[in-house]
């Protein structure tokens, strides 16, 4: 049973305060989890409760911490940690709002994840086993090696340029292929007199003129590292288009583009570069455009909905009904509980959407999402570049899991269309 819950304020990878939660059980075992935080957030995400006022520029989370230590602590006392669905439902009900704004999604998610950890620890099994059982698969990792948009001052409108080792036979080899490419890219940037400092997600943030310049650099880096673009290593992008669109206009690379022009642009680059996946190619408010994008490119590449679905099963169902995207990004703190994230994944599977588990641009050392991705057989994960420990730790956790699974370890296959 749950004995008591203790939350505290800690700091994330951007120096912002966030919630860490310890859940203690009556059998003496316990679990800890901490909550990440986004920068390019979707409008309909569950609410991250911040204190406001002067302290820490209003970003403090002491109210959320207090909500855990008082209200949620009493609410969950004596509940079974093994009934994740009930624990999450109790918190959702007690919160009483549609977007978790009263208790705070940061408070609720911290508890939700820490309860799962405590339960796994109590059974003395790894978290991925507890949440997933047997027949587990490692996800194909997507590494964000060039950062733009809100995550860096590189001046590039597209937020993320990712590479993924689709040809790797296992996770370790995939990671090695990416490490080779990452170091090659770094040297290339240096030789060209470009910046090699990294952005929020550990990717380089060079001042580039255009998306195409970044894509060409990636192709060159993959080749120079000794791999075949599109066969060994492919490219994915997250333009996070909500961030550069307003009133139906896309302010992209110095031009004002319509939704149709953005779609034509994506068609053009997909034809020129080994791009297999585009996330949030259009704004979260441009459902008609996103539907059209799906019609035009959906049978050629993966189209991932992040800000447009915000891991919210209700909104996602609407998107499925309207024929929007063919993949969903899963960020636990967008919805605020482990159970609802699982519901979104199940919904995706039922409707032939692929799933990509995701970190946030503000992260902690918590590797929960690595175990979660394996447990859910999610197929894909993105958790930054192979730099910055709060990102790399998650990739390292897959190495440990792969080692533990031994001969039964397999890596998810990506169907290149
Ligand atoms: P965020 O970025 O964590 O800043 O929202 C990640 C993403 O857009 O996928
Ligand atoms: Zn995104």
Automatic annotation (TrEMBL):
It comes from the Bacteria. GO terms for molecular function: magnesium ion binding; phosphopyruvate hydratase activity. Mg(2+) is required for catalysis and for stabilizing the dimer. Binds a second Mg(2+) ion via substrate during catalysis. SUPFAM superfamilies: Enolase C-terminal domain-like, Enolase N-terminal domain-like. Residues 2-131 form the Enolase N-terminal domain. GO terms for cellular component: cell surface; extracellular region; phosphopyruvate hydratase complex. (2R)-2-phosphoglycerate binds at residues 159, 331, 360-361, 382. Substrate binds at residues 151, 160, 279, 306, 358-361, 382. Pathway: Carbohydrate degradation; glycolysis; pyruvate from D-glyceraldehyde 3-phosphate: step 4/5. It is found in: Cytoplasm; Secreted; Cell surface. It catalyses: (2R)-2-phosphoglycerate = phosphoenolpyruvate + H2O. GO terms for biological process: glycolytic process. Mg(2+) binds at residues 238, 279, 306. Belongs to the enolase family. Catalyzes the reversible conversion of 2-phosphoglycerate (2-PG) into phosphoenolpyruvate (PEP). It is essential for the degradation of carbohydrates via glycolysis. This is Enolase. It comes from Trichococcus ilyis.
């Amino acid at each position: 049973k749950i004995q008591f819950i203790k939350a505290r304020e800690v700091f994330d990878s951007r120096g912002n305060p966030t919630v860490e939660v310890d859940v203690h059980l009556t059998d003496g075992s316990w679990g800890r989890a901490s909550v990440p935080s986004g920068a390019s957030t979707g409008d309909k995400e569950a609410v991250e409760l911040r204190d406001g006022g002067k302290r820490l520029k209003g970003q403090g989370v002491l109210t959320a911490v207090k909500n855990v230590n008082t209200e949620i602590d009493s609410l969950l006392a004596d509940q079974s940690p093994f009934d994740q669905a009930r624990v999450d439902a109790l918190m959702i009900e007690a919160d009483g709002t549609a977007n978790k704004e009263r208790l705070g999604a940061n408070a609720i998610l911290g508890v939700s994840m820490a309860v799962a950890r405590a339960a796994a620890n109590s059974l003395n099994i790894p978290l991925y086993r507890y949440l997933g059982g047997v027949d587990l698969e490692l996800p194909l990792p997507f590494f964000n090696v060039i950062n733009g948009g809100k995550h860096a001052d590189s001046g590039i409108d597209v937020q993320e340029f990712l590479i993924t080792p689709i040809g790797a036979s296992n996770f370790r080899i995939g990671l090695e292929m990416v490490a080779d490419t990452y170091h090659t890219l770094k040297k290339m940037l240096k030789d060209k007199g470009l910046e090699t400092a990294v952005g929020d997600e550990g990717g380089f943030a060079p001042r580039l003129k255009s998306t195409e310049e970044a894509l060409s650099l990636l192709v060159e880096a993959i080749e120079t590292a000794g791999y075949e673009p599109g066969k060994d290593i492919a490219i994915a992008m997250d333009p996070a288009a909500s961030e550069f669109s307003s009133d139906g206009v896309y302010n992209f690379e110095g031009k004002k583009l319509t939704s149709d022009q953005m779609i034509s642009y994506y068609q053009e680059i997909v034809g020129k570069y080994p791009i297999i996946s585009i996330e949030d190619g259009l704004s979260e408010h441009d459902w008609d455009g996103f539907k059209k994008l799906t019609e035009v490119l959906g049978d050629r590449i993966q189209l991932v909905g992040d800000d447009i679905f915000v891991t919210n099963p209700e909104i996602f169902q609407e998107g499925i009904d309207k024929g929007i995207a063919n993949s969903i990004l899963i960020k636990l703190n967008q919805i605020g509980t482990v159970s609802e994230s699982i519901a979104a994944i199940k919904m995706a599977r039922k409707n032939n959407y692929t799933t990509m588990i995701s970190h946030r641009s503000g992260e902690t050392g918590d590797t929960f999402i690595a175990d979660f991705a394996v447990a859910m057989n999610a197929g894909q994960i993105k958790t930054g570049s192979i730099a910055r420990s709060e990102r790399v730790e998650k990739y390292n956790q897959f190495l440990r899991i792969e080692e533990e699974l031994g001969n039964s370890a397999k890596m998810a296959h990506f169907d290149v269309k």
